[in-house]
Amino acid sequence: xxxxxxxxxxxxxxxxxxxxxxxxxxxxxxxxxxxxxxxxxxxxxxxxxxxxxxxxxxxxxxxxxxxxxxxxxxxxxxxxxxxxxxxxxxxxxxxxxxxxxxxxxxxxxxxxxxxxxxxxxxxxxxxxxxxxxxxxxxxxxxxxxxxxxxxxxxxxxxxxxxxxxxxxxxxxxxxxxxxxxxxxxxxxxxxxxxxxxxxxxxxxxxxxxxxxxxxxxxxxxxxxxxxxxxxxxxxxxxxxxxxxxxxxxxxxxxxxxxxxxxxxxxxxxxxxxxxxxxxxxxxxxxxxxxxxxxxxxxxxxxxxxxxxxxxxxxxxxxxxxxxxxxxxxxxxxxxxxxxxxxxxxxxxxxxxxxxxxxxxxxxxxxxxxxxxxxxxxxxxxxxxxxxxxxxxxxxxxxxxxxxxxxxxxxxxxxxxxxxxxxxxxxxxxxxxxxxxxxxxxxxxxxxxxxxxxxxxxxxxxxxxxxxxxxxxxxxxxxxxxxxxxxxxxxxxxxxxxxxxxxxxxxxxxxxxxxx
Amino acid sequence: xxxxxxxxxxxxxxxxxxxxxxxxxxxxxxxxxxxxxxxxxxxxxxxxxxxxxxxxxxxxxxxxxxxxxxxxxxxxxxxxxxxxxxxxxxxxxxxxxxxxxxxxxxxxxxxxxxxxxxxxxxxxxxxxxxxxxxxxxxxxxxxxxxxxxxxxxxxxxxxxxxxxxxxxxxxxxxxxxxxxxxxxxxxxxxxxxxxxxxxxxxxxxxxxxxxxxxxxxxxxxxxxxxxxxxxxxxxxxxxxxxxxxxxxxxxxxxxxxxxxxxxxxxxxxxxxxxxxxxxxxxxxxxxxxxxxxxxxxxxxxxxxxxxxxxxxxxxxxxxxxxxxxxxxxxxxxxxxxxxxxxxxxxxxxxxxxxxxxxxxxxxxxxxxxxxxxxxxxxxxxxxxxxxxxxxxxxxxxxxxxxxxxxxxxxxxxxxxxxxxxxxxxxxxxxxxxxxxxxxxxxxxxxxxxxxxxxxxxxxxxxxxxxxxxxxxxxxxxxxxxxxxxxxxxxxxxxxxxxxxxxxxxxxxxxxxxxx
Lengths: 515, 515
Description:
The structure is a homodimer.
Chain A: H1 2-7, E1 12-13, E2 21-24, E3 35-36, E4 39-40, E5 50-52, E6 61-64, E7 67-72, E8 81-82, E9 87-88, E10 115-120, E11 126-127, E12 131-136, H2 142-156, E13 165-169, H3 185-195, E14 205-208, H4 225-229, E15 232-234, H5 243-262, E16 267-270, E17 275-280, H6 291-304, E18 308-311, H7 314-317, H8 331-350, H9 361-365, H10 371-378, E19 387-391, E20 401-405, H11 411-420, E21 425-430, E22 443-447, H12 450-455, E23 462-463, H13 466-469, H14 474-489, H15 496-500
Parallel strand pairs in A: 12-13, 12-14, 14-15, 17-18, 17-21, 18-20, 19-20, 21-22, 22-23
Antiparallel strand pairs in A: 1-2, 2-5, 3-4, 5-8, 6-7, 7-9, 10-11, 10-16
Helix pairs in contact in A: 2-5, 3-11, 6-14
């Protein structure tokens, strides 16, 4: 195996002509002594890790993506391995002085003729799945809801063939929480908007307990209280004589909604009805080279087709925010971006921590030295469009185009928050690999490297590795990914997480105390 | 129905001779005009709500449990209904000036001869169940673990008849969290100690991803790293070519542990091996009259038998802490109690909230006007023993007797934290009713009122209502509850939550930011 690696031609990628480091592509890394063009490697450089292309003095800037990702803590001669211990973190962009809407990208040419088969809803949104979502106002009911969902799947679902699935929207919020704390607005808004995700077709059923702090009707602020209560089943209602009666009650209300949902059928809609969420997790140095730029290209295609694309993950965007505020459509949007960054700075400071808690050990092993390098790779997902709206965590999207939906970077929290914002399909890029999936919306998992795509052949849905080997361009891979998005949105293709039924829990972002 | 209620003799309970309010017992409440002894009711007083026994002037103290629970915001003549809008909250006990270990209760007479059938572990602990617990270092693996657990239950568990269950210990921690924040110690310690719960028999299996911030070996700090890694399966290990290989890997490691667990058999052990957690949720004004005092009596019996009893729920204890610090075994224990109260005061203040976020609307509907009244009823669970140890959230118990294990009051967070502290059976009192249950330990649910026990006949395990009607004394009901605890600990009786298999998720307390 080692011999085979040694015989492979040494390959590396420099992203920007001004970079003084490149990324080693060869799967076993490159041993010391390797001749890489006119550079002789001084150290063994693992795959996806950085090698210096010039002599860098102590304190000298290390440049990737054309941006400074850190300063050398000792002299690094040409051909050195640059790992996370050798870089000092640059100071983060000062929010107050950032330019807003100064480089708003011109609209790219409109893209006509792309469609998918979606479920059109009464409120104008379009879903990619036809799912009965059973909301909950408090975690206390989770066991009962899980039990009811099992029975609904067994007994009722087969009678309604147009309905794809039944999902219990269990979460840890609702009681034992500081519901009057200022930040409680975040989880409450998230739960309200989760219930309205387009994949649930406007059919709302809330199972509550009765004594919880989060009143079930709160989840439907758009309905008058009496109408809202028609969608609520409270386990403590005096009419329920025991557990079996509760289950029967849930089944009866579920069946009414299944009948409605069963009337929905897929119809051809323009690609402008897509609401795609973007995320990365378990990233490596290839994330910013292969998968994220290809996804950025696909994102541009969706925006050109008139659709909606959300990117998120505040802590991974923070160190590259100076590249985003100029792209905001107008100053107001730019200020909203700053507001979300500042909120998170304060939130981390209050917890006596900072952005250095990111990246993870796996990121570092994958060649990502620090949060600056990770951020630069992460925002490659956003493509090159202007940013048309900035959402606070859990707010529902109201514009088309490229949206920044502020969320934590935690995969499962980000997924939950994007669902609340109205995302109906997610694309998730990963370099290290994760079996991540969501029950409420399909997730396309994109591998940054061909080795991962091959090894996890029954978990990864798409391989962006050919970009690294030069077998395909970013544009070609991005176009393929765009077409896969349309196929999955149409139900023509099923991501692996749905084939196996492996899904993560909802993780509602609650920045307020539990009590 | 109303007529029937009207014909019932009016019944009320005054707990302490110095109280100027009593609790109405009659299930429909009592209408205005009712003659209750020599008092004529001025208002309709709902069941479990307070009625004034004397004229209380504006600003006058309202006294229950012999303690001031609030001050009247207007004059309340004898026979008035006292609801939550009529009380002003007293200031909480000043921590700095509280007496420590000044009234340490003398040991009650030892209780000999009580035993249960438990599973003795190599480390000296005794379990009440024989469960394979599959720990996880990060939520990313949850879908895979859930899938594996389903297959293990189907294919493997039937071959190991002495093993009761297989439980995936999924949680939302592990990555996307500020792992270096000072408060990260709480969730990390909790996960470490969860894996060691006596019901898991010392068999540890950790499924990790590979790139997460919480290294899987961290969960076993007592083992050297190489030994610890023998208990770890990381999905990103290069040996796993895809999902099916991961599942096969988990099954193989699970089977080794099932073989070990299958060798465990129940043996007769003294009741001193009990580690019982106490909790209340969905409380009403009867909680502090029937269920909690009866549970307090049972707690005293366990302590007299040499066993361990934990009570918890900092925010519900805070307003009665001046009654607890004198009961601490020594000043050091008293200071630990103050430390936990202060930590929570600070935590709530940081989130710009305070104790008034508790009680819940259901509590108020159930007659609990404010947190002071709730706290006084809540600590009745602790009985009358001295407090021998105070644990920070997630710390493992190391002493016998009555323990204060600091946790949030949130039912599912408290349950998770008590499991980490080594609790092997929980007793949960409820007035409003909740279907709460835990997968890792049996939960005995105690109704505060007979109506609830009857209505929720297949969810409530025990009825403390006869205390209110005078059909049984606190001592009699407490003794019955103690005997039920021994039956359930022995596996002779199964609580309803285990009959139905309805269990809440683990909710690990994480006071640090997510990232």
